[in-house]
Fold:
Amino acid sequence: MSSAGYAFIYDDFLNDRKYERPLAELEARLASLDLTGRVGRLTLFRSAKDLIESLVSQGVSTVVIVGNDRTLDKVMWFLPDLDVTLGYLPVDGPSRVAEILGIPVGSEACDILAARLIETVDMGKLDDRYFLTEVALEQTTAAVDIEGKFRISPIAGGSVYIRNLGSVGEQGEASADARDGLLEVVVQPQEDKRGGMRRRNNPAATRIFMRFGEIVSNDPAEVKVDNHVVNSMKFKIGIVPKKLKIITGRRRQLLPAKGGLLKNAANANLSASK
Structure:
């Protein structure tokens, strides 16, 4: 199998000696599959954007990220604007994105790369930053303006998630469809943290879909974009359909959210956009 046009981007945490053996196994498997190419290494003082753009200008057409989900975060904010296919070889956790994409951790991921089952997915965009998974506001009173039609926010505080591929939480029970041209907005009121039977009465989440909108807050809001944190009082947010080509496994979990209607609206504040 020819691997012309591949570039393998290694995260700097892989320099730790504990990764010598798993990397050796991964590279041996790559060699057995005749998957070789240029190698780039992320460092504290080297721009990931400059590195990858340089490699693409030299003919690279498949960029393979070697590391974990945080490594993806270092490149995802700009990578969709390059005409490349993304591959992912997770070596260590966190690897929730790898799980969603059906990619095992370690050398077995090389077989997924070799099979080249490519999906074209949407990318979310927060201001000028792309995101693959979700935007999260924890314990917030911020509102989301839905396409200039109305605003939605948690009653008495709570959390807001705006999902493209889906949740990267430990349980990962919530997943959105990253191929439908829509973002899923999930408003979760504060939970009753008391034990026993009372927890069964926790309010359900409100879900609604949108193509574009704004996050608006009266105070500076901390927003997690994939695993990157930014702060502001207002953000533009939207979806860019079919923006990224990514190699996935056959056990990928690109599951669509059910329906497209507002649900459980009693547990969220709704108001007309101003």
In short: Confidence is low (pLDDT under 50) at residues 170-174, 196-200. The two ends are 57 Å apart (CA to CA).
